[in-house]
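Quick look at the format.
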Amino acid sequence: MAKATGQGSARAPRRTDSLSRELIVRSAIEILDGGGEKALTLRALTVRLSTGYGAIYHHVADKGDLLAAAADDVITGVLSGAAADAEPRAALRGLALGLFDAIDAHPWAGAELSRQPWRPALLDFYESIGRLLDALDVPEAVRFDAAGALVNYVLGVAAQNAANARLRADNGDGDGRDRETFLKDTAAQWARIDPGRYPFVHAAATRLGEHDDREQFLVGVDIFIAGVSALG
């Protein structure tokens, strides 16, 4: 008599096509985008790819290797989307905005990039920034500091926006109304403070409630470019 198989022992059908590192990384990115770093487990990946642990480990060493490869893929996408023939200022602006948008789309990537700044893709990004600063005649003596300032600015602002987005998601609101409410409440608080003691903050209250984070970020990049251009 054939042995009965319980419902709990049923297995998902295994994939019949071959796995590749690229497919594994793409799937990992989907998991990370959906649930963050905590959601990415080797178990979750085997389920998504309908495969076993051995097939995954054939291409990646561990979760750390997978996270690094996913972050590399994000940065590579930014570099591949950069305009190769753009004027240096426009190209620098485009790279900064590309990284900002990439981290906005993949909030987990910012922390991973900060954790391993020696990754090849991030080194390629730094190299692109360095070449553009050279093209703007930024002196070599300050070029390293200038590149670091720009990248740190991008990563810092993007990380803060990602943290705010996670906070809104934890509050159960995914359509942005919490951000709007928070900014309007803060603007109302600023408007009530003593304009004699805080003239700038009091005046800025009218713009705080309706400002656009992305546009404000670009203003910061433009200020940076104007500053480093003056060094040449």
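Next, a different chain entirely:
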Amino acid sequence: MSSETDRQRLHGMASTAGYGEAAEALAEQYESVTFSEVHRDMLHLFPSRPSSVLDIGAGSGRDAAALAARGHRVVAAEPTAELRALGRRIHADQEIEWVDDALPELPGLTAQERRFDLILLTAVWMHLDERQRTLAMARLVSLLESEGRVVLSLRHGPVPAGRRMFAVSTEETISLAHGHGLEVVYEAHREDPHGRPGVAWVNLGFQRVPGRKRPDVGPRR
């Protein structure tokens, strides 16, 4: 951002700002590209056997549905009610557990002490500020199985009007993950699958290091 006022405005916005109002258009955009197209570079990171998967910021459910169709037990966490409703309708043929939960705390899933083999965050991480990213990384690791993986994407480019996004570097993300017991197993840079000018992505895959102690993320509520 260009000024301190702009930065303060961003921090004051909700991470889901602008998504409810634009849910129909966003769902159409999300569904215009396939799971395989979006994740083509990272398909080898996804479990080959039926596994427990958490899709955070699931949006219209495109990825959750594709993973459920592959036999995985999928929880789709989406804090925007309008997108959850659309996702349930669009992918009614797939067995997906939709929940109203969000980073950095994921209070609902945390209270249930859920554990996942894979946690997927597609176009989510840039909505969190620095403090929230630190809290969120600890929470993600606390929800992983002993050798579970986190697969996430970092967005680079202009911020759409009315949205809350922060510049997040690959180096910071890898360092933060490492500090919470994750090792990077994959990194790739790619163009925007929607062809938006100036937008590019970095895809990262992390895996829990066996034997590492789970992070202390405070009392479970």
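Residues 1-13 have pLDDT under 50 and may be disordered.

See the schema section for token definitions.
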